[in-house]
């Protein structure tokens, strides 16, 4: 297959590129800069911006991708949840998908989010109706619905993978693992402020493998990309501290959840199970993440 990947230099995208190239697919990696991720066999870098539809059409016309893996979105820490730019990303993403389908594309796989669910339930099942409470979740769910409409009036199939809480090499500094591991590696103390909160964690390589599997899998519509297992932040923090060799410097707070913040967010991954399963345990994933941060 010939796969156009947006968000190719992002947290998930970099791992996706490696996996697609390793299995021999022809990859067109979309970026705002030529070869933004470096030269690699099987990967062609193309200049384009999802927020500028006019820049996308020449890429599709030139390369004629058969599959679209759309990962790009606003991800600025502390900003993306409420940013008005989420609407722009929804509109630009839909324009991209429509242009891809009009160009003869066969399948679209999009990156959704567990933020599309009603988190007050605790367990986010794939059959649940979306009830997003943030502009980010609302824009993601709007694109999911629009892709369903697009698939109904074209020959293009689609799948929508709702990602839960991922971690791994290359994640931004402010996220949970580096926020604890980095001070511990520097010989400082680190504090897990809300150890009782439960989240569904998944290593980034496993997330990337799920999206690669969705390019082939005979699945349409929304599904979860998740471990299906809830881990308290306190237990996760202990794994991080153990991997740094500085467990004695890990401290725990007792901050209550913020107003509206759920105690538990877990999502069983049922629909994708026949075609993909997580391969990296939490212990192994944390060890790899800390080793990367140490380097």
Describe the structure.
With 295 residues, the protein is α/β, with parallel strands linked by helices. The protein folds into two domains: 189 residues, Rossmann fold (3-Layer(aba) Sandwich), CATH 3.40.50; 92 residues, UDP-galactose 4-epimerase, domain 1, CATH 3.90.25.10. Helix 7 crosses helix 8. The model has no long low-confidence stretch (mean pLDDT 95).
Mean pLDDT: 95
| CATH architect. name of the largest domain | 3-Layer(aba) Sandwich
- Rounded to an integer, what's the Rg over CA atoms? 19 Å
Q: What would the principal axes of the Cα set say about the shape?
A: globular
Kindly report the spatial arrangement of strands forming the biggest sheet: 3-2-1-4-5-6-11
Unreliable stretches, pLDDT < 50, 5 or more residues?
Answer: none
Number of individual domains? 2
- Summing up helix and strand content along with how strands pair, one would put the structural category as alpha/beta
- Major beta sheet summary: 7 strands, parallel
The name of the CATH superfamily of the largest domain reads NAD(P)-binding Rossmann-like Domain
Please count the beta strands (DSSP E, at least 2 residues each).
Answer: 14
């Amino acid at each position: 297959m010939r796969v156009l990947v947006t968000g190719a230099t992002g947290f998930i995208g970099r791992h996706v590129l490696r996996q697609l190239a390793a299995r021999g697919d022809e990859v067109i990696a979309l970026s705002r800069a030529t070869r933004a991720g470096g030269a690699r066999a099987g990967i062609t870098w193309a200049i384009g911006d999802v927020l500028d539809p006019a820049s996308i059409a020449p890429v599709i016309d030139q390369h004629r991708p058969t599959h679209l893996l759309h990962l790009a979105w606003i991800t600025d820490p502390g900003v993306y949840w409420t940013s008005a730019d989420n609407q722009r990303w929804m509109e630009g993403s839909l324009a991209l998908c429509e242009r891809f389908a009009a160009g003869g594309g066969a399948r679209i796989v999009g990156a959704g989010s567990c933020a599309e669910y009603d988190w007050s339930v605790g367990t986010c099942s794939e059959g649940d109706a979306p009830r997003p409470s943030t502009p980010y979740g609302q824009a993601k769910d709007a694109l999911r619905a629009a892709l369903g409409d697009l698939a109904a009036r074209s020959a293009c199939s689609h799948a929508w993978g709702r990602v839960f809480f991922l971690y791994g090499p290359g994640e931004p500094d402010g996220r949970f693992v580096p926020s604890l591991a980095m001070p511990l590696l520097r010989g400082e103390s680190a504090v897990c402020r809300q150890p009782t909160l439960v989240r569904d964690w998944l290593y980034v390589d496993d997330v990337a493998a799920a999206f690669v599997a969705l390019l082939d899998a005979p699945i349409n519509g929304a599904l979860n990309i998740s471990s299906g297992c809830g881990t308290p932040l306190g237990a996760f923090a202990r794994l991080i501290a153990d991997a740094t060799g500085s467990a004695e410097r890990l401290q725990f707070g007792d901050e209550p959840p913020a107003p509206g913040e759920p105690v538990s967010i877990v999502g069983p991954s049922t629909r994708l199970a026949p075609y993909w399963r997580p391969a990296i345990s939490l212990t192994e994933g944390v060890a790899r993440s800390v080793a990367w941060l140490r380097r």
